[in-house]
Amino acid sequence: MKVLMFGWEFPPHIAGGLGTACLGLTTALAKQKVEVLFVMPSASGDEDQSSVRIINASDIPAFRTVKELNTFFEKVHFLKVDSAMVPYVGPEEFGLIANGNVVQQQEIWWNELGKKYSFSGTYGKNLMEEVARYAMVAATIAANHSFEVIHAHDWLTYMAGIAAKRISGKPLVIHVHATEFDRSGENINREVFDLEQRGMQEADRVITVSHLTRNIVIQRYGIRPDKVITVHNGVDFQGKGDAEVERGVSDKIVTFLGRITYQKGPEYFIEAAAKVLKKFPNVRFVMAGSGDMFHRSIRRVAKLRIADRFHFTGFLRGADVQKMFAYSDVYVMPSVSEPFGISPLEAMRSNVPAIISKQSGVAEVLRHAIKIDFWDVNAMADAIYGLLQYPALSQMAVRCGLEEVNSLKWDHAATLVAQIYQEVIK
Asked: Is 266 helix (H, G, I), strand (E, B) or coil?
């Protein structure tokens, strides 16, 4: 079986857990004899292609022939094509585009035949423009490759998945790793929500990474329950040995590792830290990550007068993540809404006991992590204190947690995904 898969990132160049999940799933799918063509906006050339074939969208022209251009405008008319999509458009041409005349739009785009886009592959200010252009390139890729099913990861690639489906007629599976409600709470970006909902509506199957996310997809996006299937993420520790570090301090270390954004609950971690320090002064708290709440978090730490016990490392990746876990005595993930959450599994694999919010998908599969409500800073502080103060509790959490995470394999997730492929192909 051959799958055309769309993703926004792939290791080693990642900004979060999405790329890591794509690598784990595709590696396991290869064992299932599933051949994956993985399309990403901007490939660097150093991606691991032992289990996938990487297609760099920046190397592919949006339209190669007039026929491809005409087919795109005929079948993918849902995609808004505005002036930002065509470089160097003049006032007269802008008027034609704004009026939405398909024939006139096509005439303008004839000048773009054979031209390639240089995608950043990041999450910058031109993100929406890149998402739309990525969908155009996806149509060309779909027209020039053979495959049985399309698989699109997260909202950034849903339009590409739909375009590929419209051009090829092949079934579409979308993979929801997070929703706009996870990222923004009730203050959602309506444009992102609309893209997510359209992707879910057009898909033949919707894969969610947890039952928590499945409920959001059904209730908030109005998707039929029979179309939405939960496949929990696995974890791949192959090639990740235990890092050896030498501590420069004798204090205990409690770590938060993730984006410093609303979704991850950094403010609750800070409040719990202040409470713990009143009872257990010989501890240091580390916030490893970056995000839009970074400076706000620093100000709150200063206001609580715990800055001498609190450390901000910035964003960590690769070996530095493993070193951070090696330094840690407790790991905390206080996410407000976490569709899954791989980092607690990585912590437990590194012999670090984990405290996780009940509002996370990973809480559905872990029995030996301490679970608290993200907002209950007293319970969070109690859990941290207990793991620091009572060695027997920490040792039991480490021993049982290690056994548990070693049983969570991507092979199981890949088996379920391959079954979904077979169902939509029939």
From this structure: helix
Q: What is the pLDDT of residue 90?
A: 43
Domain at 262, CATH number: 3.40.50.2000
- For residues 152 and 160, give the distance between their C-alpha atoms in angstroms, rounded to a whole number: 8
Structure token digits, residue 74? 């005929």
Phi, psi of 60 (to 5 degrees): -110, 125
* pTM, full prediction: 0.83
- Evaluate whether 106 touches 158 at the Cβ level (below 8 Å): no
Please check whether residue 156 is in contact with residue 178, taking contact to mean a CB–CB distance below 8 angstroms. Answer: no
Total number of domains constituting the chain: 2
Q: How many residues does the chain have?
A: 426
Cα–Cα distance measured from residue 18 to residue 9, given in angstroms and rounded to the nearest whole number = 7
Predicted confidence (pLDDT) at residue 106 exceeds the cutoff of 70: no
Q: Are residues 292 and 360 in the same domain?
A: yes
pLDDT number for residue 187: 87
Neighbours of 102 (CB within 10 A): 12
By the 10 Å C-beta count (0-12 exposed, 13-18 middle, 19+ buried), 317 is classed as exposed
Q: From CA 352, how far away is CA 358, in angstroms rounded?
A: 19
Q: Are the C-beta atoms of 385 and 254 separated by less than 8 Å? A: no
Would 107 be classed as within a structural domain?
A: no
Question: Is 309 contained in some domain?
Answer: yes
- Per-residue pLDDT of 115-168, as tens digits, reads 888 888 777 777 888 888 899 899 999 999 999 999 999 999 999 999 999 999
Question: What does the buried/exposed string (b/e) look like for 67-76 if buried means 16 or more CB atoms within 10 Å of the residue's CB?
Answer: ebbebbbebb
278: containing domain: 252-405
Helix, strand, coil distribution of the chain in percent, nearest 5: 50, 15, 35
Radius of gyration from C-alpha coordinates of the chain: 23
The verdict on residue 347 lying in a domain is: yes
pLDDT reported for residue 94:
39
Question: Do both 212 and 258 map to the same domain?
Answer: no
What's residue 121's pLDDT? 75
What is the tens place of the pLDDT at every residue in 376-408? 999 999 999 999 999 999 999 999 988 888 888
Query: Would you state the structure tokens that stand for residue 73, as one six-digit string?
Result: 């405008």
